[in-house]
């Protein structure tokens, strides 16, 4: 695939985040530190469902078909829950220890700013982890959609990544605001919307899986994948 | 190893010892408030004048602990060591740059991922049929490597104790000569081969000669701070690439773990070689010879004939030119705790700096090992960037935490343990657990 696809998708996915970083965060070292801390928290929150997956894999090793699908969806749900938990943990950490130890003489950044920076940290890390392998594959040889899948795989992925990054920023702000004001239903809303976004693709997939099963009967094979790169 | 620098760079007496060192490396004062005053009146005058100067300036990132003996203890509270986020960033940038250079090279130049033999320090091969044998061999390799490093560090401490400065300086100069000329030549050759660019020998000679000569001048003598920092980053990257190429897989990981433990022990234990080095330097009231240490401070001086004193001094790592790589460099550096340097005696009437900025010093060995970890992560993955990124973030967070501890404990700390621990944990967990998960998610276009 061409360099145009690479650069185009890269800038679609990461352009706004990069702009946000350059204009609001890069100037202040404290914010950069918080950004990296947010990214770190997201990474840690990703480790735990992976551990779970590893354990489950030992149990359900060779089953193919719907079981794997449902397991995947379950892992997604679990990881979303854990991410929100880590967002809460980040909030608690920041609120309690304060910023005194890092930068006592300057005024502590407001919680709103912290919410934005942490959301951006989560978002950038999430977007990068989701998309960077796809992006590097787009520089190599291959044809997208040669087996009947959508040829817009890269573009879709890039836009979804963009959306996820921005959503993480918004979720961060809303979440911290809810924590500050002790309105716990806000936290629930954030969790539910996150789950909705993460599973909306898989909901469609599950429905299509069910439809296939219904049409072909249980013995048929099905192709659940929507986007598949060959030559990878 | 991480230390503070108080940027009070006074004038350094120019003698044969210092002629090889760049002008004043801002000495970091120790935070021992109860410390008795300096031995001679000159020092006293200099400290006092610096103290008063520090009063006027507002340096938000001030390392204010070292007010010197003239200050009543009551004022110490407001001057508690604050380690501004600015210093964190001042270290993030060079570490990131070094890692970027290493990762970019690994991903593009095949030479550094090919296995062409091993160093003499890791004689046991890893091409064994059984897993147990391979593990045993890697542990043995690690033991040999670590003992070489320990021996060299002790040798350095002994040389320092018996004041063989010329030997040390000569050794360091030879080591940096090798890095700047030979390794650069090899690197340039491989890069040209990768991109299929032809270069004739005269041009090559000119390029390498200029690069190397300017590097020697900047590192060992005087030069603009930015250039010096750039050269230090380059040589750390070159060293890391050599390690990545020549250390076998499992040995590399075990060595990384073992080195962090060694670093911890050597810097913190009372009988550790590094600690002894510091104490010796303190007794003699002289700065520990500037090692391969990256310094982020800038000091401008007024009314002095010297150029802007970069805080880098002569390379100090004991380096044996016959050896192919100065692996113990890395040790040496983690070993140089600079926090306890006493200020150099300055001329009493001397004009002080117009502007100071305090900074922090990080040993080059830390750069090298961070880059080795990230480079190995980049080389090992099957074109996978997630592992590399995870290790990168883990190392930065470790560095941040170490700086935080530095702010709390106010003395030289080993920079390797926390970062390398996080890096190793994240490497193994991301490679084995997270990567398959993320691959599945990406192919199903699921975003979490």
Task: List the SSEs and their pairings.
The complex is a heterodimer of chains A (232) and B (448).
Chain A: H1 3-25, H2 29-59, H3 66-97, H4 111-137, H5 153-181, H6 184-216
Helix pairs in contact in A: 1-4, 1-5, 2-3, 2-4, 3-4, 3-6, 4-5, 5-6
Chain B: E1 2-5, H1 41-56, H2 85-108, H3 131-161, H4 165-195, H5 201-220, H6 225-246, H7 249-268, H8 273-284, E2 293-295, E3 298-300, H9 327-332, E4 355-357, E5 359-363, H10 364-380, H11 385-409, H12 416-443
Antiparallel strand pairs in B: 1-5, 2-5, 3-4
User: Which percent band covers the strand fraction of chain B?
Assistant: under 5%
**Can you summarize the main beta sheet of chain B?**
3 strands, antiparallel
Spell out the helices and strands of chain A N to C: HHHHHH
Euclidean distance between termini CA atoms of chain B: 38 Å
- Count the E strands of chain B: 5
**Average predicted local confidence, pLDDT of chain A:** 79
Describe the protein's architecture and organization.
The complex is a heterodimer of chains A (232) and B (448). Chain A is built from 6 helices and no strands. By secondary structure, chain A is an all-alpha fold. In chain A, helix 1 (3-25) packs parallel to helix 5, helix 2 packs antiparallel against helix 3 and helix 3 runs antiparallel to helix 4 (111-137). The model of chain A is unreliable at 219-232 (pLDDT under 50). Chain B has 448 residues and is mainly α. Chain B has a domain at 86-295. In chain B, the strands form 2 sheets. Chain B has a 3-stranded antiparallel sheet with strand order 1-5-2. In chain B, helix 2 (85-108) packs across helix 10 and helix 3 runs parallel beside helix 8 (273-284). The longest helix of chain B is centred in the first third of the chain and has 31 residues, at 131-161. Mean pLDDT of chain B is 71; it is low at 6-83 and 300-356. Classes of the chains: A mainly alpha (232), B mainly alpha (448). Chains A and B meet through helix 2, helix 3, helix 4, helix 5 and helix 6 of A and helix 2, helix 11 and helix 12 of B. Chain A: It is a multi-pass membrane protein. Chain A: InterPro entries: Aph-1. Chain A: Component of the gamma-secretase complex. Chain A: It is found in: Membrane. Chain A: Its main location: membrane.
């Amino acid at each position: 695939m061409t360099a145009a696809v690479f650069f185009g998708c890269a800038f679609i996915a990461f352009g706004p985040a990069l702009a946000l970083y350059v204009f609001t965060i890069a100037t202040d070292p404290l914010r950069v530190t918080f950004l990296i801390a947010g990214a770190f928290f997201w990474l840690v929150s990703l480790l735990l469902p992976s551990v779970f997956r590893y354990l489950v894999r030992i149990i359900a090793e060779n089953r193919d078909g719907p079981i794997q699908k449902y397991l995947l969806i379950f892992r997604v749900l679990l990881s979303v829950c854990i991410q929100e938990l880590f967002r809460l943990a980040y909030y608690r950490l920041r609120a309690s220890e304060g910023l005194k130890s890092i930068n006592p003489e300057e005024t502590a950044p407001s919680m709103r700013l912290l919410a934005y920076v942490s959301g951006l940290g989560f978002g950038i890390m999430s977007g990068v982890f989701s998309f960077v392998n796809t992006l590097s594959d787009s520089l190599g040889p291959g044809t997208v959609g040669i087996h009947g899948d959508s040829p817009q795989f890269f573009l879709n992925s890039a836009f979804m990544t963009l959306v996820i990054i921005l959503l993480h920023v918004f979720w961060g702000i809303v979440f911290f605001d809810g924590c500050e004001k002790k309105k716990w239903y806000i936290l629930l809303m954030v969790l539910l919307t996150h789950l909705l976004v993460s599973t909306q693709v898989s909901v469609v997939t599950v429905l299509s899986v069910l439809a296939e099963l219904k049409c072909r009967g249980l013995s048929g094979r099905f192709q659940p994948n929507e986007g598949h790169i060959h030559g990878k | 190893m991480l230390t503070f620098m108080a940027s009070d760079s006074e004038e350094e007496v120019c003698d044969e010892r210092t002629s090889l060192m760049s002008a004043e490396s801002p000495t970091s004062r120790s935070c021992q408030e109860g410390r008795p005053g300096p031995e001679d009146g000159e020092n006293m005058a200099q400290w006092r004048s610096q103290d008063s100067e520090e009063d006027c300036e507002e340096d938000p990132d001030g390392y204010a602990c070292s007010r010197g003996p003239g200050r009543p203890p009551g004022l110490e509270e407001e001057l508690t060591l604050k380690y501004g986020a600015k210093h964190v960033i001042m270290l993030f940038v060079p570490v990131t740059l070094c890692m970027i250079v290493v990762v970019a090279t690994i991903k593009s130049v095949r030479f550094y991922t090919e296995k062409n033999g091993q160093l003499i320090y890791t004689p046991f091969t890893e091409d064994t049929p059984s897993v147990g044998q391979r593990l045993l061999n890697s542990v043995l390799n690690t033991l040999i490597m670590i003992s070489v490093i320990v021996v060299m560090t002790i040798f350095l401490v002994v040389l320092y104790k018996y004041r063989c400065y010329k030997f040390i300086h000569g050794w360091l100069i030879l080591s940096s000569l090798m890095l700047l000329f030979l390794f650069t030549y090899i690197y340039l050759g491989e890069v040209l081969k990768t991109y299929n660019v032809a270069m004739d020998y005269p041009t090559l000679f000119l390029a390498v000669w200029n690069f190397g000569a300017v590097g020697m001048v900047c590192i060992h003598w005087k030069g603009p701070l930015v250039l010096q920092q750039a050269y230090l980053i380059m040589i750390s990257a070159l060293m890391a690439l050599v390690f990545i190429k020549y250390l076998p897989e499992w040995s590399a990981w075990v060595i990384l773990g073992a080195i962090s433990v060694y670093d911890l022990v050597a810097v913190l234990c009372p009988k550790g070689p590094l600690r002894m080095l510091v104490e010796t330097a303190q007794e003699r009231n002289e700065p520990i010879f500037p090692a391969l240490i990256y310094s982020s401070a800038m000091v401008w001086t007024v009314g002095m004939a010297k150029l802007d004193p970069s805080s880098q001094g002569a390379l100090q790592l004991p380096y044996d030119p016959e050896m192919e790589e100065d692996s113990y460099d890395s040790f040496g550096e983690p070993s140089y705790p600079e926090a306890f340097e006493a200020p150099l005696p300055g001329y009493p009437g001397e004009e002080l700096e117009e502007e100071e900025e305090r900074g922090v010093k990080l040993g080059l060995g830390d750069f090298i090992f961070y880059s080795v970890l990230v480079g190995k992560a980049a080389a090992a993955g099957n074109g996978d960037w997630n592992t590399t990124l995870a290790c990168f973030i883990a190392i930065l967070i470790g560095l941040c935490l170490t700086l935080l501890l530095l702010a709390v404990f106010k003395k030289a700390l080993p920079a390797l343990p926390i970062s390398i621990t996080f890096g190793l944990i994240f490497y193994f967990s991301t490679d084995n657990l997270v990567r398959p998960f993320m691959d599945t998610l990406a192919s199903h276009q699921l975003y979490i």
